[in-house]
Design a protein that fits this description.
Blueprint lengths: L18 E12 L2 E12 L3 E5 L6 H8 L7 E6 L2 E2 L5 H7 L1 E3 L12 H7 L9 H6 L2 H21 L14 H13 L5 E5 L7 H16 L4 E5 L3 H7 L2 E6 L2 E6 L1 H5 L2 H8 L6 E3 L5 E3 L2
Parallel strand pairs: 3-8, 3-9, 6-7, 7-8
Antiparallel strand pairs: 1-2, 1-4, 4-5, 9-10, 11-12
Helix pairs in contact: 3-5, 3-6, 5-6
Length: 286
């Protein structure tokens, strides 16, 4: 049986900047509505990459295609060198992809530790028989799983709440618990869907540090959807912008913040003026 410990994180990661995921002309249609329109997108290993855009731009739909919740209408999708187009979520999770959700999806009547344990299901090896018979191997795996769950809760900053019911946590701590659960499968890439939603400025600042630690200490690539633009611009190494389902810009934070198409998408203006934006700085349009 494989031992479970946070020291195991990062041992089987791809080299930094190696192509981890590639989407080619990825498209999602719902009847006559095209939610994502022929988007090309890559994720380099060992980076923090953000996907931004106005409400309704197609960001969460794109996440849902990457993770298998939605079956894309057209295009190609590979992850870890394997074709994942149309694969079910549990198969993609087994390859090393995990996620959080825009609307928190915890098991609120379960303890925090049990919620994190749920995220380990792709790594646990004990079967029904060993569990029913309480074999030594199963008991050892359970002990190690609980210890790892507590380590992950300590890592995200909620170590004192392991025995509490998830539904009793403050909103920001529920967000952190979701991140701990996503990390429990020891993924190669974790997809965070608006993790700063509902957080106060102090919690948001701590979240920035956490994402850097996920990358640097766990060797895990981060793909972020977020509307808090100060967070996006400070934490990201590359930013991709969607608008009405189409990719309109991609590059470093500085390149994106000065892209006229991005300014127009967010502000409805492309007249060459310098306008205050949601980044807390100024964006110079062309």
């Amino acid at each position: 049986m494989t031992q479970m410990s946070m020291s195991d994180f990062g041992h089987d990661r791809l080299p930094r900047d190696h192509e981890l995921l590639r989407a080619s002309a990825l498209t999602m249609r719902f009847g006559g509505l095209t939610a994502v329109d022929a988007v090309d997108f890559t994720i380099p290993a060992g980076r923090v990459v953000s996907l931004i855009g106005p409400n309704g731009a197609g960001k969460t739909t794109f996440f849902n295609m990457l993770t298998g919740l939605y079956h894309p209408t057209e295009g190609e999708l590979t992850f870890m060198g394997k074709d994942t187009f149309g694969r079910p979520p549990h198969k993609i999770a087994q390859l090393g992809m995990s996620r959080t959700f825009q609307n928190i999806r915890l098991f609120k009547e379960m303890t925090c530790v049990d919620n994190v344990l749920v995220g380990m299901h792709t790594k646990l090896q004990g079967g029904m028989l060993s569990t029913l018979l309480r074999l030594p191997s199963q008991r050892r795996e359970e002990r190690e799983g609980i210890e790892l769950a507590r380590e992950l809760m300590r890592f995200v900053g909620i170590h004192s709440r392991h025995a509490e019911l998830a539904g009793n946590l403050p909103y920001g701590d529920q967000r952190r618990l979701e991140i701990a659960r996503a990390l429990a499968s020891r993924p190669s890439v974790v997809l965070l869907d608006e993790p700063a939603a509902g957080m106060n400025p102090m919690e948001t600042a701590a979240l920035e540090g956490l994402m850097h630690r996920i990358r640097d200490e766990l060797g895990c690539t981060v793909l972020l959807i977020e509307h808090e633009m100060k967070l996006v611009m400070s934490v990201s190494e590359r930013v991709t912008v969607l608008n009405f389902g189409k990719k309109i810009a991609e590059g470093t934070p500085d390149e994106v913040r000065n892209d006229p198409a991005v300014v127009e998408a967010y502000l409805g203006s492309s007249d060459g003026a310098v306008v205050a934006d949601k980044y807390g700085d100024e964006v110079a349009t062309a």
